[in-house]
Amino acid sequence: MTLVDILWYYLFKPFGVVFNNNNKYMSKTIQFFKEVIAELKNITWPTRNQTIFYTIIVIIVSLIVAYYLGLLDNIFKNGLNWILQKK
Predict the structure, then answer these.
(1) What is the DSSP letter of 15?
(2) Is 50's pLDDT higher than 90?
(3) pLDDT in tens, 13-42
(4) Spatial separation of the C-alpha atoms in residues 24 and 53, rounded to whole Å
């Protein structure tokens, strides 16, 4: 049983949707799901090593950005405190 058959049986059939060649919207919907399934079969998923490598890169870059933003925040906080204490 394909995904299209499952969608048809559980989503459309209980509501009395009749599928025939005259129903162009239903035909387009079925065609859309068939194309989605065909495209999903063409996906090239990354390997385990690639996923681990890119995850580590994202964590490192996130830590660098967090440190940079924290440093700037501290500089601006101290600068603002210094300016306000001068008055």
Answers:
(1) G
(2) yes
(3) 665 555 555 566 677 888 888 888 888 888
(4) 47
Residues of the domain holding 71: 46-87
In whole angstroms, how far apart are CA 33 and each of 14, 28, 85? 19, 9, 66
Same-domain check for residues 29 and 54: no
26, burial (CB in 10 Å: exposed 0-12, middle 13-18, buried 19+): middle
- Residues near 8 by beta carbon (within 8 Å), at least 6 away in sequence: 19, 30
Asked if 87 and 56 sit in the same domain, the reply is yes
Cα–Cα–Cα angle for 22, 28, 31, nearest 5°? Answer: 120
The token pair that represents 5 in the structure block: 């058959």
Cα angle, residue 54 at apex, residues 52 and 44 outer, rounded to 5°? 85
57's tokens: 């890169």
